[in-house]
Amino acid sequence: PDLPLSSVLVPRLEWLSSIGSTNGELVARAAAQGWPDLSVVATDDQTAGRGRLGRSWVAPAGSALAVSILLRPRLPIPRLGWLPLIAGLAVARAADRFVSADRVSVKWPNDVLVGGRKLSGVLSELTTDGAVVVGAGVNTAATAEDLPVPTATSLAIEGATLTGPDPVLSAYLEELLPLYRSFVAAGGDATTSGVRAAVSERCATIGSRIRLELPGDIVVHGTALGIDTDGRLVVQPADGSGLLPVAAGDVTHVRP
Length: 256
Ligand code: BT5
Known about the structure:
SH3 type barrels; 2 domains; BPL_C; ligase; biotin; aa-tRNA-synth_II/BPL/LPL
């Protein structure tokens, strides 16, 4: 489709009618063709979407937006942990424009929820030339039958009237770019850039009792206290052991 809103926002934007994975495509092309910071690849027909930890993101053609953005922030590697969190916040803020904002929240590290159900997920990957590709899947026009799991939702299910992918894509980029720029301008300092406060305020995980599943099938129960300078979730385990900074894992919010 025409993407007049989105095209003016970034130096390079490629809309693909169909692709296996926008992340995969951008990882391959960015390194091979030297694409600049803030290049975007997007589609609404992603046939082999990747999730985290080897899982998949599944959405029938036309039901979801898949958007990947190439970032070359020239920051110390540990600080890059903030990039998917920034992307998740940008998706949440974009979703605010389409559904009632008080229903939109973020679950660390990468889920955007509406009314507690998953609207979006984010996956960040490194390229061979040291850039970061941050991909977001957002369920847009999906009906309940389109969605692979009953815990998912879409903008349409939540009552949004959508005219196509361009307004959703441009809303996401409009929210992402200022967050990213202030984070980079602050040298990757999430605190002074205001990114940490903005993400924390939006993150339903912080202050919650959680069940945390770490890679390797390790389960920890505890309370999420906050997010550290590298974007890690800081957890106070319920067994009284020391604070645990968590870089990767799956969180379930537990009702007290
Ligand atoms: C994610 O992984 O949520 C990251 C998804 C990232 C997708 C984007 S699309 C653009 C870019 N290109 C790619 O190839 N990927 C990125 P994770 O936290 O591991 O969650 C995966 C789990 O979410 C699955 O195991 C399902 O349970 C669930 N899921 C899959 N498809 C979904 C959907 N359309 N809506 C909601 N939940 C879904």
